[in-house]
């Protein structure tokens, strides 16, 4: 984010913060699906996720996603479909809810949380040297996911084009996005997000999404 980027003030309520964090989770889910099927990815959505993962001590909530809800537009659209009971790609939904389950497992594992924190601090140094989306940084983020979250019993199996999934840097890119999904899932939980609220507070969430739209 450059200094000249305008800060778009999203509604500053617990529900709005939960919605934006959850949009980050579903944005990651959507990008994993896109990457695995096509090998391509929306650049703005991708950069937003990677930067959020690297920024472990943001100056504000808005700074996490680059100051403008449109940076999470892909995820907000998926979330609108979920809340509005519209047809949503079932694979994207599976990835999204699997990320929330995986986040809960991670929260109960202090040693893994500490390990991830240490790894991210080291990767931040790499990002300062090479740039946030340099392939060395992406490879390190992917490795961090593989050596921590991939070892848990709850694992995310990515579907897609087998030849694409085995191509150069593809496994690392997919894992880096999954790690970003975990980052936003943790953020969602920190902001008071809970699975049951998606069912029982659907109306409030829909109203907030309308305001963000």
Whole-number average pLDDT? 92
Distance between the termini: 21 Å
- Spans of at least 5 consecutive residues whose pLDDT stays below 50 are 1-7
| Share of residues in helices | 55-70%
* Overall outline: globular
Largest sheet: none
Q: Rg from C-alpha positions? A: 16 Å
Return the string of H and E elements.
Answer: HHHHHHHHHHH
Number of helices: 11
Instruction: Name the beta content range.
Output: under 5%
Number of strands: 0
Structural class call reads: mainly alpha
Subcellular location: Cytoplasm; Cell membrane
Family: Belongs to the HflD family.
InterPro entries: HflD (IPR007451), HflD-like_sf (IPR035932)
Main location: cytoplasm
Keywords:
213 residues, mainly alpha, 11 helices, disordered N terminus
Topology:
Blueprint: H1 14-38, H2 43-54, H3 61-64, H4 73-83, H5 90-107, H6 110-130, H7 135-147, H8 162-165, H9 170-190, H10 195-200, H11 202-212
Helix pairs in contact: 1-4, 1-5, 1-9, 2-9, 4-11, 5-9, 6-7, 7-9
């Amino acid at each position: 984010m450059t200094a000249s980027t305008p800060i778009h003030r999203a509604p500053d309520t617990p529900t709005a913060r939960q919605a934006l964090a959850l949009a980050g989770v579903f944005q990651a889910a959507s990008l994993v699906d896109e990457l695995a099927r096509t090998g391509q990815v929306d650049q703005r959505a991708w950069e937003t996720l990677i930067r959020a993962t690297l920024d472990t001590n943001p100056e504000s909530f808005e700074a996490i996603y680059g100051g403008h809800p449109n940076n999470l537009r892909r995820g907000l659209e998926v979330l609108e479909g979920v809340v509005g009971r519209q047809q949503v790609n079932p694979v994207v939904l599976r990835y999204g809810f699997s990320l929330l389950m995986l986040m809960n497992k991670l929260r109960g594992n202090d040693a893994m949380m500490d390990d991830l924190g240490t790894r991210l601090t080291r990767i931040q140094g790499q990002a300062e040297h090479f740039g946030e989306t340099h392939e060395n940084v992406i490879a390190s983020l992917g490795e961090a996911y593989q050596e921590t979250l991939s070892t848990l019993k709850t694992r995310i199996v990515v579907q897609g084009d087998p030849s694409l999934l085995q191509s150069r840097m593809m496994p690392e890119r997919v894992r880096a996005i999954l790690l970003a999904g975990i980052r936003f899932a943790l953020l969602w939980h920190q902001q008071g997000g809970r699975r049951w609220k998606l069912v029982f507070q659907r109306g409030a969430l829909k109203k907030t999404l309308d305001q963000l739209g």
